[in-house]
Amino acid sequence: MVRQFKHHEQKLLKKVDFLNWKQDAGHREIKVMRRYHIQDREDYHKYNKLCGSLRSLAHRISNLPAQDPFRPKMEDQLLSKLYDMGVLNSTAKLSDVENKLTVASFCRRRLAVIMCVSKMAETVSAAVKFIEQGHVRVGPDTVIDPAYLVTRHMEDFVTWVDTSKMKRTIMRYNDELDDFDLL
User: What is the domain partition of the chain in residue ranges?
Assistant: First the structure.
C-alpha cells in the first residue's frame, strides 16, 4: 500500500502535470516522425533548426529598408533556392518563409515520400525498406539513405537500380521483360 500524501506534498503535486510536458511540444515531433517514417530523431531536430534559421534570415531580410538594393536580391535568392529545393511553391513571398515553412515541408522532400508520391511504393515505410535494401537510385547513384532530400530537378531521376528484383518484377508484370534480362 502507498501512504497518504501530506498536505504540502499534495500542494506540490497540483503544480506538476506528469502527462503533458512543455518540451514535448504537443507531440508534434512524434506525429511528424510517424507520418514521414523518420527513424532518427536527429533528422527531425536538424529540419527544425533549419526552419528556424531560415525564418530568422527571412525576418532579417524583411527588416532591411525597402530602398536597399541588397534586399530584393537576397529575397530572390532565398525564394529561388527554396523553390528549387521544392520546399515552397513558385508564388511564395518572403512572408511565406516566416509563416508557412515547417519541418513537414522538408520531410515531404525525403526520398521515401517522393517514391510514394510517384507511386513507386504504397507506403512510406515500404519505400524506406526499398531504399535501405539498395533498390533505388537517384540519377546514376544508388542511394541507401532514406533521409536523402530530393530537389525538384532530381525528381524525374528517381528510378530502380538496373539489377533490382523490384524492377524485374515490375517489368514482368507489365510484359516488358526482355529475353536477354532473363539470363
Answer: 25-106, 111-174
